[in-house]
Amino acid sequence: MDVKPLRENRLHGNPGFPVGFYRIERTAGESILDNHWHEEIEFLMVTYGKAIFQIGLASYELKAGEAIFIPGGELHGGFPLEEAPCTYEAVVCDLGWLIGSGDQMAKRYLLPLQRGLLSLPSHWTADAEWGPKLLTQLRTVLDLEASDDPARELRVKIGLLALFADLISRGLMQSKHPGEPSERRAAERLKNVLLFIEAHFARRLTVRELADVAGMSEGHFSRVFRTYMRQTPIAYLNRYRIRHAAGRLLDSDLTISEAALESGFDNFSYFIKLFRAVYGCTPKAYRNRP
């Protein structure tokens, strides 16, 4: 399937080594990173080009060599910047794995971080006094993904702990200032709406129904949705449906019209138009591509 769950519940790495490494290349104008969330923390570094990454309501313009830290449970995504291409690498880690060693220092600092009581700087640049060293340390951890060192997993753990140790030593791990209660509620309600869309996209959905799921007025819901997702609810729903249909074209023998109907489209011409807008080709050409 071309559509990934909005709330990631897959295991990053494996039970004994719950750390996942990812490298993503996006061409100019292509979608950068679909909005989603997971309970693990994530460090993400842009290695080529530039893009906008959003964590909750905060947006950061990243160019090559810069990074962001994404706390567990935060809704986040990426968007094209000036139609530029972008390549980025990420390491996603279960903090419980680092805490589980029984080390009291790890529990003292990492457990509160896991619980959202402490925070780290979100945007890492070389302009910050601490930036060059910590970005180099992060780069070292990311490079371990391709290592054939038999001690690779141990080195990853040491590298992550050393990174956190330097953040602590530099006073960069601080008490988290809670956001406005209304902002936190809006984020949680929006997550519920995204999960609702994921479960019911194949049938007719209206903005009114989605607003009811969020417990908001239709106008307020539309404004909140646009703030977090950078598009209208219907535009997001249609793109989700198109990506689902694209996945079905590749992993099933459904006809194009059957894939459209299964994905929630009852107007075939409209489906073709939206498909072209998202993928730059017809559904038939997409299915037959090499």
Automatic annotation (TrEMBL):
Gene3D superfamilies: Homeodomain-like, Jelly Rolls. Keywords: DNA-binding, Transcription, Transcription regulation. SUPFAM superfamilies: Homeodomain-like, Regulatory protein AraC. Pfam families: AraC_binding, HTH_18. InterPro entries: AraC-bd, Homeodomain-like_sf, HTH-like, HTH_AraC, HTH_AraC-typ_CS, RmlC-like_jellyroll, Tscrpt_reg_AraC-type_HTH. Residues 191-289 form the HTH araC/xylS-type domain. One of its GO terms (molecular function) is DNA-binding transcription factor activity. PROSITE patterns: HTH_ARAC_FAMILY_1, HTH_ARAC_FAMILY_2. This is Helix-turn-helix domain-containing protein. The lineage of its organism: Bacteria, Bacillati, Bacillota, Bacilli, Bacillales.
